[in-house]
Amino acid sequence: MINTIIFDLGAVLIDWNPDYMYRSIFADEQQMRDFLTTVTTSDWNEEQDAGRSLQEGTEWLIAQHPHHEENIRAFYGRWIEMLGDAFEGTVEIFKELKDSGKYRIYALTNWSAETFPMAQEKFEFLGWFDGIVVSGAEKMRKPAPEFYQILLDRYNVKPEESLFIDDNYRNILAAEKMGINCIHFTSSEKLREELLEKSIL
């Protein structure tokens, strides 16, 4: 019996993409791709999601790539420009689940504690959650089991009574190992189908 829904945020409810900002810096698409894959990498960004300060992360990266200093500083200096729109199809599903009154609904997100307030200011639906666990504030991130456990303990959630929705398959695998029911998110349309199949919507 599912009584708790746990959403990931980025790429599930919220569109975030560094391309949006860096296309205004790089005229050449391949140069931008090279910069994002070799300098401001996902691994580097995830260290800020895990609690490293934006300043420390920025200065560390500049020390590794001093000739890219200006473009590195833009990553967090102009971060708000990377924040796209909400995925309205998923927001509508969230609203239906919330309005049903059947579920407690939480968010478990890998996100810097310093940039998350910008998202809260932009997206009203972030105020609909019964609770949000932000990796940067906890100084740990998915897929660490301890991070999931924070949410389970804080809100008295039983794994077998919860459903976790995330676009990153490694995060799904980690949750499943803890006994949490999961849906691997690929689109809002597919999510709706799977929730209907499970008689959750």
UniProtKB/TrEMBL annotation:
Stored SUPFAM superfamilies: HAD-like (SSF56784)
InterPro entries, per the entry: HAD-like_sf, HAD-SF_hydro_IA, HAD_sf
CDD domains: HAD_sEH-N_like (cd02603)
The name this protein goes by in its record: HAD family phosphatase
Organism classification: Bacteria, Pseudomonadati, Bacteroidota, Sphingobacteriia, Sphingobacteriales
